[in-house]
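Exam prep: given the inputs below (a chain plus 6-O-phosphono-beta-D-tagatofuranose), describe the expected output before reading on.
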Amino acid sequence: MASDAAHLNATFGIPGVASFAKHTLGGVVAQLSTRHASALVAIHGAHVLSFRPNAGPDVLWMSSEAGISPGRGIRGGIPVCWPWFATHASDPSKPDHGFVRKSPWRVVSTTSANATAQIEFAFATGPEHAGLWEGQADLRVLVSLSDKLRVDLTTLNTGEAPFALTQALHTYFAVSNIAGVAIRGLDGRSYQDKLQDYAIVAQRGPITFSGEVDRIYQGTTDDVVIDDPGNHRGIRIAKDGSTSTVVWNPWIEKSQRLSDMPPGGYLGMVCVETTNAGGDVVTLKPRDTHRLTTVLSVESL
Ligand code: TA6
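Solution:
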């Protein structure tokens, strides 16, 4: 079968750089390695599970209750949310964050050059998605590992009509303790506060956490840095193709309503999401493409 580890290793394996194996969570996972870091990417959802620089703990958080299986999202890492962000605007019965994060993708290439390992995945919408989405598109996810981790999500409109798109690289970051974390880079920006029925609020200073936070920051192309003194590191999130950034921690009560979220899991994670969300909507004409990019790196504190 095209997605089994043996076939993938024979076709796309690169000794010491890219290999494939069945993962304990279920499903086949690619391992990328460079002299600076390693990463794991599930074929399911083209979903990055781990980004581990040689020094320090994994940059990404994964729930201890996460699993990889058809039709199921993976709680943690970098979910690919497409072709809509969060709840569908007109039909809440449709899956939150779209359907590609719960779908099988196809490996199309692996490369190794200039101390960078890359793997590219493809997804094409088809008749099986007609009940969920009326457009036609070809997607690519390109994961590039050096001392940084870069993810590019590219959409090509292959249909005859324009479509509107909201989307996210919905990254879960691992932190030592959410109560000790501060997020810099959004001072002075306004955000839609989901907890206040999307009221517009101005951000003053760094973001700190003492309860649930669920915000869509608008009009920002800036880098964001998660200061995590407990891990003696800052995590920088740079981006392209986006003017909105989502910051989310479910805290106690929301966590209890989430699937695959262990008790107390919220203490060790924060989402800083590279998005086209809120008023940041992408409209693609036929044959147009859009690329959403996030670049993660670690700095000493
Ligand atoms: O990006 C933040 C958010 O929209 C939250 O409101 C919460 O729903 C989160 O995404 C997780 O969504 P999920 O469908 O993965 O449980």
